[in-house]
Design brief:
The complex is a heterodimer of chains A (214) and B (206).
Chain A lengths: L1 E3 H7 L10 E3 L7 H15 L5 E5 L16 E5 L4 H6 L2 H10 L3 E4 L1 H6 L3 H12 L1 H11 L5 E6 L5 H14 L3 E6 L3 H8 L6 E4 L7 H5 L2
Parallel strand pairs in A: 1-2, 1-3, 3-4, 5-6, 6-7
Antiparallel strand pairs in A: 4-8
Helix pairs in contact in A: 6-7
Chain B lengths: L1 H9 L3 H13 L4 H20 L5 H25 L6 E7 L7 H12 L2 E5 L6 H11 L3 E5 L6 H13 L6 E5 L5 H7 L3 E3 L2 H11 L1
Parallel strand pairs in B: 1-2, 1-3, 3-4, 4-5
Helix pairs in contact in B: 1-2, 1-3, 2-4, 3-4, 4-5, 5-9, 6-7
The chains are: A alpha/beta (214), B alpha/beta (206).
Chain lengths: 214, 206
């Protein structure tokens, strides 16, 4: 298993002890070219000892397109990004997007890693002072209406709920809690790898079509 | 003098940037030179963002400064530029996506380069694009989207224009990781990597 730092949080409770896992930095997601490079390196290393590599990623801004393992199969959730993984399916993600496209999603992983506009806001205050930081962050959030905590049921929800509620109030967003689901993670770990997964045989390359045609 | 403007923008000093723009204009500096200074400032901020030194909210404020400055410059530039428009364009961020930094820059550049732009905003359903094209008589549509989730709505919008009989309308797409492969997937006529590419494509269709 090679997974992003935010996704692994929700996988660890289900991950069998005999499945080795590698965790990659969440910050990589803003630079898809760099994420692709790091993922390929990790795939090359890991495929020496494994027949199947599970990637705890989605399309992630096309970062997984072009990846290849010469001797191992690659299994990737057929999703745009990790939000579908937390919600349990692509379909659940589409329903939420339709309900409110202007949603900023938070999970335990994101809050812990701290790589969100709300944590960046603290750095902006240091740099520019309270008033200007407030103007900047609100500008950035101007199309966002909802701040949603995805509750995947794994952890001390009260703490993350309080954080999300306070943050929503502070920036004029509507707080909501969305029920997550471990279905996709469970299926990834234990099968079956059906339509909800992209399965790339050894030696073949991940394409965008791998995600759209099934 | 232009350096003062660059420093104000990169230093996120909103009021100063506008005041300096007015000073520059009063002292006879050409609007196009002021625009070039803005471009230089944006490049500095863009590099800082890539290196992780700056965050998206800083890009947003820089964008706000750019549009405030352009509002001041536009009337002066219109006096100089040819009054005849090159053509009408409808732009918008497609349904399900709310990212607009790039779309706003593209709208701004198209407008500056002589196009009459109708900007429909964000999360725009296919039917709204069709309606706007019919209303304005635009022959070019620009679809923007940052998320990979935007590719299907782009495809649907291209299909909606076709099935509404608007087969002579050209569609260009852009944003995020869009490439030739995605252009083919959506059925669009062209894709662009940045705002200048959007202007070049639109001009080739005008």
């Amino acid at each position: 298993m090679i997974a992003c730092a935010t996704v692994i949080e929700d996988m660890l409770p289900l991950l069998p002890e005999d499945v080795p896992h590698e965790v990659l930095d969440f910050g990589l997601h803003i630079n898809p070219a760099e994420l692709k490079k790091v993922l390929q390196e990790k795939i090359n290393e890991a495929s020496r000892d494994a027949d199947v590599l599970l990637l705890g990623y989605g399309l992630c801004s096309m970062a997984v397109v072009g990846l290849q393992a010469t001797t191992a199969a690659l299994v990737i959730p057929r999703t745009d990004d990790c939000i579908a993984i937390f919600l349990g399916s692509c379909n659940a993600y589409k329903v939420e997007t339709k309900k409110e496209p202007g949603t900023y999603y938070l999970t335990k992983g994101w809050i812990e890693v701290g790589d969100t506009p709300f944590e960046e806001h603290k750095k902006l205050i240091e740099k520019f002072g309270e008033a200007k930081a407030e103007r900047m962050t609100r500008l950035m959030l101007k199309n966002y209406k909802r701040l949603a905590l995805i509750n995947t049921g794994q952890y001390e929800i009260e703490r993350y709920r309080a954080y999300t509620r306070e943050t929503a109030e502070k920036f004029g967003l509507r707080f909501e809690e969305i029920e997550g689901s471990p279905d996709l993670v469970r299926k990834m770990l234990f099968g079956p790898w059906d339509d909800e997964f992209v399965v790339v045989p050894p030696g073949e390359t991940v394409t965008y079509q791998s995600f759209t045609q099934h | 003098m232009s350096q003062k403007l660059i420093d104000a923008i990169t230093g996120m000093r909103e009021e100063d940037a506008l005041a300096i723009t007015n000073e520059l204009l009063d002292s006879g500096v050409a609007p196009v030179d002021i625009l070039n200074a803005c471009k230089e400032a944006m490049e500095v901020i863009g590099k800082r963002f890539e290196s992780g030194e700056s965050f998206i909210p800083e890009l947003m404020l820089a964008g706000e400064m750019m549009s405030a400055i352009s509002d001041v410059l536009k009337p002066r530039m219109a006096e100089e530029a040819a009054t005849e428009k090159l053509g009408k364009i409808v732009v918008g961020t497609v349904q399900g996506d709310i990212h607009d930094i790039a779309k706003d820059i593209v709208s701004f550049m198209l407008d500056l380069n002589g196009f009459e732009v109708t900007d429909l905003g964000v999360d725009v359903p296919p039917a709204k694009f069709v309606e706007a094209v019919k209303q304005t008589g635009a022959r070019i549509v620009g679809l923007s989207g940052f998320l990979t989730l935007a590719f299907d709505p782009m495809k649907e919008t291209v299909a909606a224009l076709k099935s509404a009989g608007l087969t002579d309308v050209k569609v260009m797409i852009g944003g995020g990781q869009i490439d030739e492969n995605i252009r083919q997937y959506t059925g669009a006529d062209a894709y662009g990597k940045d705002a200048m590419a959007a202007v070049a494509i639109a001009k080739s269709w005008a």
